[in-house]
Amino acid sequence: MVGRGVAALLLYFAFVGADEPTMQYDTIVIGLGSAGTTAATTLARAGRRVLALEAQDRIGGRVNTVQFGDGVVELGAEWIHGTRPSRVYDTAIKNNITVLSQDLTMDAYSSDGRQTDKELVNELVEFCLGQVENSTNDNLPLGDFLTKKLKEHLNATKPSILQDEDFMENFLDLMDQIVGNYEGSNSWNDVSTFTHYQELDGDQHMSWHRNGYKTFFELLLNTYQGGPGLANLSIKLNTEVTKIAWPQKPLTPVEVTCQNGEVYKANNVIITISIGVLKERYTTLFTPSLPEEKVLAIQRLSMGVVDKVVISYPNKWWPNSNAFWFNQTKQERDKAVKDSGWVTYFGSVPFGSSNTLTLWYNGDAAKLVETLPEDVVKRKCVELLQRFLGANVTVPEPTGMHRTTWFTNPFTRGSYSYDSVTSMKYPNSRADLGRPLLDSAGVPKVLFAGEATDLTHFSTVHGASDSGYREAMRLLPNRQDIKQAIDNLKS
Ligand SMILES: Cc1cc2nc3c(=O)[nH]c(=O)nc-3n(C[C@H](O)[C@H](O)[C@H](O)COP(=O)(O)OP(=O)(O)OC[C@H]3O[C@@H](n4cnc5c(N)ncnc54)[C@H](O)[C@@H]3O)c2cc1C
Ligand SMILES: *[C@@H]1O[C@H](CO)[C@@H](O)[C@H](O)[C@H]1NC(C)=O
Ligand SMILES: *[C@@H]1O[C@H](CO)[C@@H](O)[C@H](O)[C@H]1NC(C)=O
Ligand SMILES: *[C@@H]1O[C@H](CO)[C@@H](O)[C@H](O)[C@H]1NC(C)=O
Ligand SMILES: *[C@@H]1O[C@H](CO)[C@@H](O)[C@H](O)[C@H]1NC(C)=O
Ligand SMILES: *[C@@H]1O[C@H](CO)[C@@H](O)[C@H](O)[C@H]1NC(C)=O
Ligand SMILES: *[C@@H]1O[C@H](CO)[C@@H](O)[C@H](O)[C@H]1NC(C)=O
Fold this sequence. Notes:
The protein is of the alpha/beta class. The chain has 16 helices and 22 strands. The chain has helices at about 1-20, 35-45, 85-95, 120-135, 140-155, 160-165, 165-185, 215-220, 275-285, 290-300, 330-340, 365-370, 375-390, 430-435, 460-475, 480-490, and strands at about 25-30, 50-55, 65-70, 70-75, 80, 100, 105-110, 205, 235, 240-245, 255-260, 265-270, 285, 300-305, 305-310, 325, 345-350, 355-360, 400-405, 415-420, 435-440, 445-450. Strands 1, 2, 9, 10, 11, 12, 13, 21 and 22 form a nine-stranded mixed β-sheet that branches. It has a six-stranded mixed β-sheet with strand order 7-16-17-18-15-19. The protein has a three-stranded antiparallel β-sheet with strand order 5-8-6, with no helix packed on it. Strand 3 (about 65-70) and strand 4 form a beta hairpin. Helix 2 (about 35-45) packs parallel to helix 15 (about 460-475) and helix 4 (about 120-135) crosses helix 5. The two termini are about 20 Å apart. One 2-acetamido-2-deoxy-beta-D-glucopyranose (NAG) binds near residues 109, 114, 389 and 391. Flavin-adenine dinucleotide binds near residues 274 and 406.
């Protein structure tokens, strides 16, 4: 027995010795969104040598702040959803960066430019969103559940509204779209009432305004206002990973191959690519192939789509408001679908510039808008804004447009994950996705982070960041581990 132990130890040192000159990195992080940037900077700040490989030409992933209008706009994530406990919010506050609360109560306009009753609509929206939070036990399609709750509520409090069929049809359609904007779903009946999602305490719509969400990444990376970065973190942009070889033999490196032919080795790798990209690539990305548990998790989790069209004007001309609902009759909505294939329901006012407006799309409408020629999209959007918001002013020509393509983008393939009606059947999918692949000695070799792996805060920037931190900590010895190791040595 003793002889075998010594032999194993000698083998261990032979390996470590042999690998040391070539093993440039401790950890390779794939993807520099919120999860990857948090993981990479946490490890590098602890002195680990980290290589981060990012396929796109920028850091941020599903956060993308761009210069636009007279400031910045967010093409991806826009708000900090809740402040306690939030790594994102804390990072801003610790660095004295102001964030501003944005009230997104909707003003409602009809196609002739008149304001319609927004009090009642906002009150009923609040009621429905409140029900969503209280609905975690049964597995019902969310739309059916909310319709039932709303009807009971109106029957008890405002029975005449329940009799107004046009109003009800219009409001239920609006609520379907609001759910779609939260979830990225196509229909509110694709979404389940069963979910482990938890809202953080505090304000749900804190904006980075003119700082931009990109500031979060600059602060993590120590590049804010010309900061020098982190000594132990190497970043390669425009570097798409195509292969991850993870031999199960202990002490053999993980080998990561890139589209450009480069090959990198490290002790372990943290993968942060979206569930949409994993669905498309998991069969070719890994050698050996992923275990069944992981494959099933990837197949079972749902990826939603939310897109924006942001338009700039020479100056602000629209009514004072942070959010608009374009209240259309059923006939108008049917006509919009017939004419152009989609209906525009919502607009919001970016907090990072004064002369831009955002229109929102989700589900199939978003996928369609992504594929149309830009000038077609622009014309339709400009007409709509003119009609609903321009009744009392001369509307200037737009100066520019950004149309997002989160589904078409091969490195995102959607916007964020949501709990679909099948999620209750597979309640462990997120945990299964987040569990590391181990070598035959039980040491984590391939680790998984990213929004979709967070059990309670998936679909958000703070959830993604938490997941990156979680996986970094898996690789860092904590005091408890060290104490245990010393105790073991003593005994
Ligand atoms: C339109 C929109 C609005 C949103 N609004 C909000 C909001 O207001 N608040 C909020 O909290 N959240 C919001 N979200 C969600 C939030 O943006 C995401 O949950 C979060 O940013 C995901 O971070 P991540 O690190 O998990 O993944 P990602 O940001 O997707 O990072 C993964 C990275 O991996 C890279 N990658 C992919 N494949 C490869 C490869 N083969 N090789 C190398 N690199 C690769 C990608 O380019 C990407 O940079 C929004 C998202 C969208 C799209
Ligand atoms: C990073 O690596 C260098 C050696 O290149 C080391 O001297 C330094 O202490 C490390 N930095 C941190 C923050 O750990
Ligand atoms: C933030 O502001 C406080 C008070 O002005 C100051 O003491 C602190 O050093 C600042 N912190 C950073 C990170 O700039
Ligand atoms: C949620 O449920 C709790 C307990 O039943 C109740 O007190 C609360 O009012 C409910 N919230 C909403 C928004 O209905
Ligand atoms: C409405 O409320 C009354 C009692 O106030 C009840 O008898 C009736 O069944 C309710 N209708 C619906 C559709 O819930
Ligand atoms: C939408 O506008 C119409 C008037 O065009 C109004 O009758 C209706 O109540 C509005 N819908 C809602 C849900 O407020
Ligand atoms: C236009 O002016 C009317 C009358 O003041 C007002 O009711 C309406 O809300 C305005 N519409 C817009 C789009 O500003």
